[in-house]
Amino acid sequence: MTTNLPTSAAPLPTSPVTDGRDHPLDPRSVTVERIVGAVVGACIAAVLFSGAYVWSTHAPIPDDFRFVPYVIWGILVAGLLGWCLIRPAIVFRHASYRVDDQGIEIRGGALWRSTVNVPRSRVQHTDVTQGPLERRYGLGSLAIHTAGVAHARVVLAGIAHARALALRDALLPHDRPDVV
User: Fold this and answer.
1) What is the pLDDT of residues 82-101, one digit of tens each?
2) How many C-beta atoms lie closer than 10 Å to residue 9's C-beta?
3) Calpha distance 64→130 (Å, rounded)
4) Are the beta carbons of 115 and 103 closer than 8 angstroms?
5) Looking at the structure, do residues 129 and 166 belong to the same domain, yes or no?
6) Residue 23 lies in a domain
7) How far, in Å, CA of 31 to CA of 139, rounded?
8) Does 12 reside within a domain?
9) Nearest CA-CA partner of 141 in 126, 125, 163, 156
10) What residues make up the domain containing 69?
11) Is 90 exceeded by the pLDDT of residue 175?
């Protein structure tokens, strides 16, 4: 009687998530990041408005120029909210990830670009999380905890929740017995 059980020496079959190709983030991540940016931008705008109010009422400014702090506030808020709306599209355009038999490579960044490689042998454990907005849009974040000091926690955000779960399972080493 023969069995078809894989041995520890045999390579694992390639799963659809470990195909070695570059994958973009989920397009819904742009919407989520824009909503987050708008909320954070509105909070910062409120704080800046209180500063403009204090500046216009308590600073020794001639009455004809009391509007200047509000003009400066408007310019700052317009720039901040513009950046909060443009940045997610830039990040989406330049972010990708690749998973193969060796591990995962994550690329990203809006102004400063980075590439992080995590070998499968360094993966200690993985987490999949969802915030309220991510849950609403069906997204998730995959956190990879490694056995290292630099990049001990690498996060891949903006992917479909089901894909994050599949990546979590694919990244865990299957050929080593658990020591716990």
Assistant:
1) 999 999 999 999 999 999 98
2) 6
3) 51
4) no
5) yes
6) no
7) 11
8) no
9) 156
10) 32-90
11) no
In three-state secondary structure terms, 130 is: coil
User: What pLDDT shows up at residue 172?
Assistant: 77
Q: Report pLDDT for 24.
A: 95
Sheet of 123-129: strand order equals: 123-129, 139-146, 153-160
Distance CA 166, CA 77 (A): 40
Distance CA 51, CA 42 (A): 14
Where is 143: in which H helix or E strand? strand 139-146
Structure tokens at 65: 């120029």
Alpha-carbon distances of 52 from 11, 24, 26, 39, 64, rounded to whole Å: 64, 41, 39, 20, 16
DSSP-derived letter for residue 15 is P
Do 74 and 118 fall within a single domain?
A: no
Q: How far apart are CA 30 and CA 37, in angstroms?
A: 10
